[in-house]
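Predict structure. Chain length: 502.
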Amino acid sequence: MDINDPMLQDRMLLLAEEAFAAADEVYGMEDAEAWGESFTIPASAVSEDCSDYVAAGCCLRTLAAERQRLSGARRLSSFRAPLVEILSPDNPETTKLQQLADEGMRVFVDPLFAPNSSLGVQPPLRLKYLATKSAVNRLLYTNFHQKGLAIVLPRSLVESGQDKERFHVSPLSWAPKTGTPKGRPIGDCSDGGKGALPLNSTHAKLACDAAWGTIKHPTIADISNMVDHFLHQSSLEYPGERVVLWKMDLKGAYTLLSFCAEDVPLMGSELTDGLIMFFLCGIFGWTGTPACFQVVTRAIAHELITRLRGKVKVYVDDIFGVTRQCDLDYDLGITTTVCETMLGPDAVEVTKTEVGPRLGVIGYEIDLELRLVAVAHKNVLKALHGFLSTNVDAPTTVKALQRLASWASRYGEICRYMRPYVGALYAAYTGRKTMGTFPIPAAARISILLFRVLLSLTSVLERQFTRALGSFQPTSPQWIVEFDASLLWCWNPVVPTRTRGL
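Prediction complete.
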């Protein structure tokens, strides 16, 4: 490789231009509000919910239970076949999954928690929400209320009913989403308002982990090793057979789970026009949703591992597999059947199913033909833009360096040449306060300049600057370097592992 090669430099320049062009495609709050087209929650929808609320004795828990019954046939619930009739007898998640189906997700709270309505506390509407209210309201109405997964009521009505001191509201916000102006709505369950404890707390997180189990995601090393091992076994047992990768997504992910009807009054978020939306299903922003959904993830993984002809890993709602071409239809069919039988007839996002010799998975790409693991192209562009747009001669912030260090650490797993320069980025902000700016240390400046080049090379010279598929397999060292030192000298013998300890 000649870094002065004009053709190589041209390719790197084009990649940099692509990175800045991709960054320019990020939509802002004005774009989201325009996309929302001045949407407001239809008065007819609010009127219907009000009528049902009054008919339920002005009790949210009663209304929530009825709404969940109506949607139960389409999702994980006790209104569908018992899971013992669906899952394998040895599936270790059957009991927990049946509990989620029967009772829903319990909202564990701090022992000192009190609903903010009982304290007279009302978190103010966030400025980001107010600036994007049309988009957020439209998304929440379409994705939740129209699907029977939320209830919308005037605050004044709730305050006059049985739930007047039992309901809790968490503020809404908005975040951009790559490639679309609408962005995504965010619920902040870590904010209960001034003077009130939030839903999210250390106690709540520990209680959820105790109830549902701790989260353990497969890593890119786990997935790469799975694929590499399958390729090796397939070549021995079925020489000449074509192997393919595939992936499948669950539709709606967290929304496939329901909250316990008793706890629905705690899952409110205030909208404009004096309305409150109470969520009946899992949402992003509540600390317990990931732990609850891990039960689903583990249950699906167990079923697929025992039933498929190929191999599979499940990362939250993403299912990634490798199989022989002749077994592809079988494995896809079994996966769809398992997911839909367990979670409902619309549980699979069919339009997102992909098959091929090269696929993206958890931010990386695995290529069967080149036998390599690379950083996903869109992630290369995002990180490259971040490093290129950092002025190494200007003061920076802790947050900015944390972002660079995170990229460096993550992608250093793929491009091993990056590894020696990651530490300088972490050291640059260690011990500093999060507020204020400071000069970038010399070592960190050098690292930033090197990462600009190395990130580019992972794309333009992919074979040389990514990682071989089989390199994730654990191996034993042949040599060990041992250091011993005094104040005056250092001794470092190189010892073969077979003689170590003699």
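Summary: The longest helix spans residues 6-24.
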